[in-house]
Write a structure and sequence with these properties.
Helix content is 64%, strand content 0%. By secondary structure, the chain is an all-alpha fold. It is elongated and about 60 Å long. It has one domain: Cytochrome Bc1 Complex, Chain D, domain 2 (Orthogonal Bundle). It binds heme C.
């Protein structure tokens, strides 16, 4: 009984650690956006309305890879996967507000 409780506790701890590591950080996303995107995107927040973080994440990937035309080349920013996820989390939560 005690052994299985300890195993369960360990599993729960591992799972929550994994979630914390992969959770996108909208506050970090806001900081990145304010620095690199808001000059143009500040007045276009409605374009993210109804889009999930996953939708926006893949749109940003298309822009970064050059698949989608975009006024500013985002490649030189060298955004990491985590930073793109943070921006997507921020835009999806802030759209329409
Ligand atoms: C120089 C101005 C400018 C800057 C800076 C800028 N954007 Fe944009 N971006 C635009 C414009 C204008 C559009 C809308 C194009 C349209 O509606 O066809 C757009 C559209 C997009 C789209 C949607 C593409 C699509 O077709 O749906 C994404 C994603 C995007 N921008 C990401 C970013 C990110 C991330 C940053 C900051 C790291 C950024 N942009 C910085 C001007 C800018």
């Amino acid at each position: 009984m005690l052994k299985s409780s300890i195993a369960l506790l360990a599993a729960v701890l591992l799972l929550s650690a994994a979630c914390a590591a992969s959770a996108a950080d909208a506050a970090a996303g806001k900081a990145l956006v304010d620095q690199n995107c808001t000059a143009c995107h500040g007045g276009m927040m409605s374009m993210w309305q109804g889009k999930s973080a996953a939708d926006i994440d893949s749109l940003i990937h298309e822009v970064v890879s050059g698949k989608k035309p975009h006024p500013k080349d985002l490649k030189p920013l060298g955004l990491t996967e985590a930073q793109i996820a943070d921006i997507a989390a921020y835009w999806s939560s802030a759209a329409g507000k």
